Amino acid sequence: QSCTLNVTVAAAGSITTLNCAGATTTGTLTSGTAASGVSSSVPYTGGNGGSYAAQTVTSTTVTGLTATLAAGNFATGAGSLTYTITGTPASSGTASFALSIGGQSCTLNVTVAAAGSIATLNCAGATTTGTLTSGTAASGVSSSVPYTGGNGGSYAAQSVTSTGVTGLTAKLAAGSFATGTGNLTYTITGTPASSGTASFA
Fold first, then answer.
1. What is the DSSP letter of 32?
2. Fewer CB within 10 Å: N-end or C-end of the chain?
3. pTM here?
4. Are 26 and 38 contacting, i.e. CB atoms less than 8 angstroms apart?
5. How far apart are the C-alpha atoms of 76 and 18, rounded to whole Å?
């Protein structure tokens, strides 16, 4: 007996353009801080529906980062490729990734912000809005702390518990320092355990 065995051979994935300049990056990269939740979506056109392999590309110019693409299939026509960026950037500037896939190449550039720094932090000059009362939950209370010498770099969110009078927490949302002088606004929550002076380091 005889028969014909037919096995499908998939087309190798190909695209006609890969547009790194049109990439959209989600999340923020900061010098010296491990990347978290950062990815870049790179559009392409002319996809043939074929498959592509997983890919890992290391950064140049700003080193320490890796862009990873999971295996998949190109769309038929236009689509985008999502590269997940991990690692810790060694400096600020532009991290470059040399992408080559589906017969096309381009350089993906991602900005790495400088780590934030300031020259002085003036707790003595802070202005507090709202009132704290022993045994009563804080509501609408915040302190604005001035600083000088900001470099425009970013800072992470911060949560500081009180000493002296316990039970309170001062929270600062992530953001960026001004270039020069500015203020940091800490929101104070919780219930003070006693009267007196609550101190936040």
1. T
2. N
3. 0.70
4. yes
5. 14
